[in-house]
Write a structure and sequence with these properties.
The protein has about 280 residues and is an alpha/beta fold. The longest helix is centred in the N-terminal third of the chain and has 20 residues. Helices cover about 45% and strands about 15% of the residues. The chain has two domains: about 180 residues, NAD(P)-binding Rossmann-like Domain (Rossmann fold); about 80 residues, N-(1-d-carboxylethyl)-l-norvaline Dehydrogenase, domain 2. The structure holds acetoacetyl-coenzyme A (CAA). The site of acetoacetyl-coenzyme A (CAA) has 18 residues, from helix 2 and helix 9.
């Protein structure tokens, strides 16, 4: 089976990035949002990002225009009927993801692969509401999707070798490097990243150093592109808290227990860049 047409569910931060890389790689892409307003916002984000790619010399104006023509926005999942793969990038809510998976299972052609971009939820549980468990896997991209070279594949105990092989060819065609992880909360990257981010909040909370010095220490001492508190603002404090809670729920290990300050900042609406304020102001 050769993938020609890609469906993406959700055109938020991750969904819009996934649409962009797929369209730039030559795939026809159908992207679905829940409302026209969110769809237009997501499509605007793709245009902005591709224009930045042109400015930075990563793609030509012609390539951008050709990619743009391959993207079709919709508010209806039934427009995914001719897709060879559907990648769900909706909000991190299991009930919503399961209802999307069940609906798509009835819409997609029998050969199609169904994937989730979840960073922490159980992919096997999503597969359980479909009749194509062998064709379900996690395809976890990283933010910003057009820039970050990694994809984590999440293989469940149901995913077939054939599905993994097709997914591998697809990931390579997007120019990404792939790693494979079992279906456990956090996979590889977040399993290691989340305790580190939580520890950064803990040392800030206990007054070990200023937020600027914590970030500078890691940036310059370890050559990371961003310090941990800047990265938390970039990923979203709510997203990080959600992943930490999911990991704590599964492992009951204090390493994944969210520090009180993180929970309170989320309750106060200080979510990072997306809300204009997190550890820093934007
Ligand atoms: N298409 C292609 N390339 C693009 C692009 C686009 N739309 N926009 C930017 N680029 C390229 C730029 O040309 C530049 O490339 P070179 O280095 O070859 O010049 C590179 O991307 C960086 O872009 P900028 O110069 O605009 O930005 P920057 O240097 O300030 O870097 C950053 C920004 C890439 C975000 C960097 O700070 C970084 O890597 N931060 C860490 C990001 C990270 O850790 N992400 C993972 C978060 S965890 C996650 O996502 C998973 C989860 O489940 C929570």
């Amino acid at each position: 089976m050769k993938i020609k047409k890609v469906g993406v569910i959700g055109c938020g931060l991750m969904g819009s990035g996934i649409v962009e890389v797929c369209a730039r790689a030559g795939y026809e892409v159908v992207v679905r949002e829940v409302s026209d307003e969110l769809l237009q916002k997501g499509l605007g984000r793709i245009q902005q990002s591709m224009s930045k790619g042109v400015q930075k010399g990563k793609i030509t104006q012609e390539e951008m225009e050709a990619a743009w023509k391959r993207i079709k926005g919709t508010t209806s999942l039934s427009d995914m009927a001719a897709c060879d793969i559907a990648i769900e990038a909706a909000i991190e809510n299991m009930a919503i993801k399961k209802s999307i998976f069940a609906e798509l299972d009835g819409i997609l052609p029998p050969h199609a692969i169904l994937a989730s971009n979840t960073s922490s939820l159980c992919v096997t549980e999503m597969a359980s509401v479909t009749r194509r468990g062998d064709k379900v896997l996690g395809i976890h991209f990283f933010n910003p999707v057009p820039v970050m070279p990694l994809i984590e594949f999440v293989r469940t105990i149901l995913t077939s070798d054939e599905t993994m092989a097709i997914a591998h060819e697809f990931g390579a065609s997007l120019g990404k490097t792939m790693v494979i992880a079992k279906d456990t909360p956090g996979f590889i990257v977040n399993r290691l990243l989340v305790p580190y981010l939580l520890d950064a909040v803990r040392i800030y909370e206990e007054g070990l150093a200023s937020k600027e010095d914590i970030d500078t220490a890691i940036k310059l001492g370890l050559n990371h592109p961003m310090g941990p508190l800047t990265l938390l603002d970039f990923v979203g404090l709510d997203t990080t808290l959600f992943i930490a809670d999911a990991m704590y729920e599964e492992y009951k290990d204090p390493r994944y227990a969210a520090p009180p300050l993180l929970r309170r900042m989320v309750l106060a609406g200080q979510l990072g860049r997306k809300s204009g304020k997190g550890f820093y102001n934007y």
